[in-house]
């Protein structure tokens, strides 16, 4: 009685597979190729319930914020350019690096050791002629910025020593 059923079961499985494949193709034809609807310039699918309008609103807010940020950036760039061109408001003339790439040996000034020379270099002083040209106001500015070495400029008379060294002499 069940001897011819193997062939019949095989055919059933093939038919089930074909039915599933046909169902996928028909489903794709019906739902996969839906018409695209345009709402206020935004593309959306039918039944979005205002999703396109919400996204359009968010886009407008983001664009406005972007324009505000661009205006702020432009203003800051203008301020930065003005700050870079503006002269130093207070303090002596300082350099970002030694002239010609060669700094003077500031340790030749009595009272200046390796640590103090490094601090002077950090403040922008690399040459004897810079120190020799300090005014009373410049000395006060340097004194305020010398951290733990305050008072050394006047106590060791760096300006007079620097004038001698800048002229090629040897200080007393």
Give a nutshell description of this structure.
This protein is 59% helix and 3% strand. With 172 residues, it is mostly helical. The longest helix is centred in the middle third of the chain and has 35 residues, at 51-85.
Walk me through the structure.
It contains seven helices and two strands. The longest helix has 35 residues, at 51-85. The chain is mostly helical and 172 residues long.
Number of strands: 2
Order of helices and strands: HEEHHHHHH
Strand order of the largest sheet: 1-2
* Separate helix tally: 7
Q: What proportion of the residues is helical, as a percent range?
A: 55-70%
Mean pLDDT, nearest integer? 84
Structural class: mainly alpha
**What is the approximate shape?**
elongated
Runs with pLDDT <50, length 5+?
Answer: none
Fraction in beta strands: under 5%
**In angstroms, what separates the terminal alpha carbons?**
129 Å
Biggest sheet layout: 2 strands, antiparallel
Please give the oligomerization state of what you see. single chain
What is the rounded Rg?
41 Å
Question: Which terms summarize this structure?
Answer:
7 helices; 172 residues; 59% helix; mainly alpha; two-stranded antiparallel ribbon
Secondary structure: elements and pairs:
Blueprint (H helix, E strand, L loop, with lengths): L4 H28 L4 E3 L2 E3 L6 H35 L28 H10 L4 H5 L3 H10 L6 H4 L2 H9 L6
Antiparallel strand pairs: 1-2
């Amino acid at each position: 009685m069940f001897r011819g059923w193997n062939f019949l079961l095989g055919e059933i499985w093939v038919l089930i597979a074909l039915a599933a494949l046909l169902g996928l193709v028909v489903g794709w034809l019906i739902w996969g190729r839906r018409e695209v609807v345009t709402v206020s310039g935004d593309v959306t699918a039918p039944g979005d319930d205002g999703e396109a309008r919400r996204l359009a609103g968010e886009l407008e807010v983001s664009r406005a914020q972007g324009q505000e940020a661009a205006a702020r950036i432009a203003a800051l760039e203008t301020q930065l350019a003005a700050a870079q061109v503006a002269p130093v408001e207070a303090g002596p003339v300082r350099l970002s690096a030694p002239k010609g790439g060669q700094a003077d040996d500031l340790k030749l000034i009595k009272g200046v050791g390796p640590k103090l020379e490094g601090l002077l270099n950090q403040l922008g002083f690399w040459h004897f002629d810079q120190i020799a040209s300090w005014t009373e106001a410049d000395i006060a500015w340097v004194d305020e910025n010398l951290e733990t070495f305050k008072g050394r400029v006047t106590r060791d008379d760096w300006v007079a020593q620097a004038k001698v060294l800048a002229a090629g002499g040897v200080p007393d």
